[in-house]
Amino acid sequence: MGVRREWHDARHRYAETGCVLVDGNHGSPAAAVFDALGGDYEAAFASSEAHRASLAWLLERLPPAARVLDVGSGTGRPTAAALAAAGHRVLGVDVSPVMVEIASRQVPDAEFRCGDVRSVPFEDGSFDAVCLYFALLQMSRAEQSGLLRRLVRALRPGGLFALATVPLDVEDFDGVFMGRSVRVTSFPAQDVIGLVRDAGLTVLSERSVLFTPAHPDAAPEPQLFLHCRRGETAPAG
């Protein structure tokens, strides 16, 4: 009942904002999954030391009052919450209206938009940093590559890019995530590194971990965290 109520509240709250909402039957598969998970997703990943360490890496290097894009911002925790608490200007984008509703309540000092990041417009060079934590996995390989290039163009020269994904060699794989059916596409670790380099980023550090979400239907998953910087020249394409 809690998830259904969150969806009901989100739908009515955003009806007056012009935000395009999708439902679980006719909209984005990713939106349907994360609408259903709601706050359970945050609880399942709350113990991730690697995610907190990645944020610490970013916070140590950002200029004061930096403008940061959080792609796939979820419930706003921990990423947007940590950045906003440090005085940075955060824009979170998520395809799930339930997640955007939760994030807006939990992190009122950040801005959140409900939409598909593949079509949300961004000005070139408008962000000091981009966070992309586990938001690629339900896109095709071509879409992942294209989105990375687009997000790098949205970074200012010298801007920072923090990325995390599940580095598996799978394409349109039908799996189960926290009890929900998902279709996953990803790359092995070296190919992920190659993608970010091709997009115009220099990899400054990388870390691989095995993490088990705190959920009865979750299984251990490999995770790759990359910390990168955009070059001074504009990326190609």
From TrEMBL:
Pfam family membership, one: Methyltransf_25
Record carries keyword Chaperone: no
Biological process, per Gene Ontology: methylation
Keyword Transcription regulation: no
Cited CDD domains: AdoMet_MTases
GO molecular function, one term: methyltransferase activity
Gene3D superfamilies linked to this entry: Vaccinia Virus protein VP39 (3.40.50.150)
Entry keywords, A to Z: Methyltransferase, Transferase
Domain of life according to the entry: Bacteria
Domain Methyltransferase stretches: 68-159
PANTHER family (UniProt xref): METHYLTRANSFERASE (PTHR42912)
Protein name: Methyltransferase domain-containing protein
